[in-house]
UniProtKB/TrEMBL annotation:
One of its GO terms (cellular component) is nuclear pore outer ring. Keywords: Protein transport, Repeat, Transport, WD repeat. It comes from the Eukaryota. The gene is gb23517. Required for protein transport from the endoplasmic reticulum to the Golgi apparatus. One of its GO terms (biological process) is COPII-coated vesicle budding. WD repeats lie at residues 53-87. GO terms for molecular function: structural molecule activity. The keyword Repeat applies. Belongs to the WD repeat SEC13 family. This is Uncharacterized protein. InterPro entries: Sec13/Seh1_fam (IPR037363), WD40/YVTN_repeat-like_dom_sf (IPR015943), WD40_repeat_dom_sf (IPR036322), WD40_rpt (IPR001680).
Length: 301
């Protein structure tokens, strides 16, 4: 299969990209203060920039598509401390549906909640706080804040799957949990309880010795354990697992790449993890039947 080149026309470095639910469009975030929406349809059709979204006053770090059941919504976060939720109308025009400007410094990471729990976006900021903004039935937005989540700055955020361990989808109670990472080299697990977010576990390890660049909670799919991957500036990535409630999280160092690990991302089935480190170093990892993780592929640039 021939690879396809996509011209983005950004004037500066691209920090993030996200493909929409249907695999038809790509959103990109850049240091040129813009977000672009690009068509990535048929292999033969040339890709084209469908929209350039302006409204940030600093580099845009991340973009994230909401589930299509809520319409066509895209969130972006920036060094300017703002989070913008963009909405596309039936004619393909984009507008700012909501601007969230409570943070005092760079918003480094954003993540939409599993659609089952509603339209909620978690935001991690250099001001040390984590915010969760939720759309209400009347179209307004509610904000819940975790103060001093990572006092020296929060860098990464990810939601737990909405279904409880061992339960079939659509049965049982919904799970409201987050994992965050910070400049403090620590990952933390938060649970929503009695109307507020509370710290459940601090995933302390002498394994991470520098900023946690990314965290990713794996989809559960009826497995008997929860799994989180964390990636750090120190070159290491760790897989954390926890059995039933009451068990402790256990961390296992997978590899030291010797250069920063930028991103960790799970496949939809939760059994393959992609790890991006250093300059163009992308590896795929899979858990064997014996519970051991191994590298199964290296992606050559």
């Amino acid at each position: 299969m021939a690879s396809k080149k996509i011209e983005l026309d950004h004037k500066d470095m691209v920090h993030d990209s996200a493909i929409d639910y249907y695999g038809k469009r790509l959103a990109t975030a850049s240091s040129d203060f813009t977000v672009k929406i690009v068509s990535i349809g048929a292999a033969t059709a040339p890709s084209q920039v469908l929209a350039t979204l302006t409204g940030h006053y600093g580099p845009v770090w991340r973009v994230a598509w909401a589930h299509p059941k809520f319409g066509t919504l895209l969130a972006s976060c920036s060094y300017d401390g703002r989070v913008i939720i963009w909405k596309e109308d039936a004619h393909g025009h984009w507008s700012q549906a909501h601007v969230f400007a409570d943070h005092k410094s760079s918003v480094n990471s954003i993540a939409w909640a599993p659609y089952e729990v509603g339209l909620s976006l978690a935001c991690a900021s250099s001001d040390g706080r984590i915010s969760v903004i939720t759309m209400q039935a009347d179209g307004g937005w509610d904000t819940a804040t975790i103060e001093r989540a990572h006092p020296v700055g929060a860098t990464a955020i990810s939601w737990a799957p909405a279904t409880a361990l061992g339960s079939l989808s659509g049965s049982g109670e919904l799970v409201y949990k987050l994992v965050s990472g910070g400049f403090d080299a620590v990952a933390k697990v938060w649970g929503f309880d009695n109307g507020s977010w509370k710290l459940e576990s601090t995933l302390i390890s002498d394994m991470h010795t520098d900023c946690v660049r990314d965290v990713a909670w794996a989809p559960v799919l009826g497995l008997a354990k929860s799994t989180i991957a964390s990636a750090s500036q120190d070159g290491k990535f760790i897989i954390w697992t926890k059995g039933k409630d009451g068990d402790k999280w256990e961390g296992k160092l997978m590899r030291d790449f010797g250069s920063p690990v930028w991103r960790v991302s799970w496949s939809l089935t939760g059994n393959i993890l992609s790890v991006a480190a250093g300059e163009n170093n992308i590896t795929l990892w899979k858990e064997g039947s014996d519970g051991q993780w191994e590298e199964v592929m290296k992606v050559e640039p």
